[in-house]
Amino acid sequence: MHSKRNRNPKLLAGLATGVAVLLFVMLFSVLRGIQSFGVRELWQAYALFDGSNEHLLISTVRMPRTLIAAAVGASLAMAGVIMQVLTRNPLASPSVFGINAGASLCVVAALVLYGSSLTIGGMIPIALAGAAVTAVIVFVLGSLGGGKLDTARLTLAGASIAAFSASLTSGLILLNGQALEDALFWMIGSVSGRKLEHLQQVLPYMSLGWLVALGIGPSLNVMALGDDNAKGLGMRLKLVQSLAAAAVILLAGSSVAAAGPIAFVGLMVPHVCRAIAGEDHRWLLPYSAVAGALLLVGADLLSRFVLMPREVPVGIATALLGVPFLIAIARRRKHD
């Protein structure tokens, strides 16, 4: 009992430490790059803005990309936690289950139709619709043959839809050379070149997704016990599943609209955070949000220095980390 009582203060201290580290890395991300600044220049860029190149670089380039990386990282990580409970599959994430790919397909189709006139405000509902349609298709395919979600069918359905969406996306790009540059820049997954307006336009959807995810945290603990046990404990299973799916769509769709299809954040972060925070989703969700933000901000920061003065898109950096992580989890499941 004593150790149980002391667990929450330890978890709270760990979360506070994570937030402090995240804020430090975000500050470092704003200040460091091809051109580096000090804290004084950062303060002057907002308190004594004079329109200089340095102040413009800080306020219109570095700060927006850092804030967007943090928001997208947190959203994808939380979406991954929810999907792994919803599907009872440790390999589940928005990228692995094709939700990112479906959202990407719809956005690329819109880019082909409307070209550079398509704004981030226009991308948001398109990405959300693509994420929603893909999620419904994957879950319907995963439920065929018995009415209940089957983990193996769900995984195969997600992988198939992801491959199908990626093929259609590539075909659209190849057939429409005019939209090629815009589509490729967006599809590679990057927070570079994004503006503060991008974050302002996706933030309402992300915030709603965060609130829904945190609100269903206690219910996710019950859902993890299995459908029959959850119903036996009086949980309204369909309602919670619907809210969980809505949270994933909001979080994944808005992330794709803001930064393109960044893969593997939702796969890696929940596993790392479970080792620290345990299985209680009231703690796992906020831990994953902080860790996801930290991962993406850190990956974006490191991507500036790998091939300096050129930058590696952050989507490539997360893929390089995520593929061996996915293989390691798959191998561990095979041996369990």
From TrEMBL:
An example GO biological process term is: siderophore-iron import into cell
GO CC, alphabetical: plasma membrane
Instruction: Just give the chief location class.
Output: membrane
The record's Pfam families line, in alphabetical order, gives: FecCD
**What residues form the membrane-spanning segments?**
12-31, 67-86, 92-114, 126-144, 156-175, 202-224, 244-272, 284-306, 312-330
Membrane-topology descriptor: Multi-pass membrane protein
Q: Which UniProt keywords apply?
A: Cell membrane, Membrane, Transmembrane, Transmembrane helix, Transport
The entry's localization annotation reads: Cell membrane
InterPro entries from the entry? ABC_BtuC-like, ABC_transptr_permease_BtuC
What Gene Ontology molecular-function terms does this entry list? Answer: transmembrane transporter activity
Give the domain of life: Bacteria
Keyword Membrane among record annotations: yes
Entry's family note:
Belongs to the binding-protein-dependent transport system permease family. FecCD subfamily.
Protein name as annotated? Iron ABC transporter
Q: Which organism is it from?
A: Paenibacillus oryzae
Q: What is the lineage of its organism?
A: Bacteria, Bacillati, Bacillota, Bacilli, Bacillales
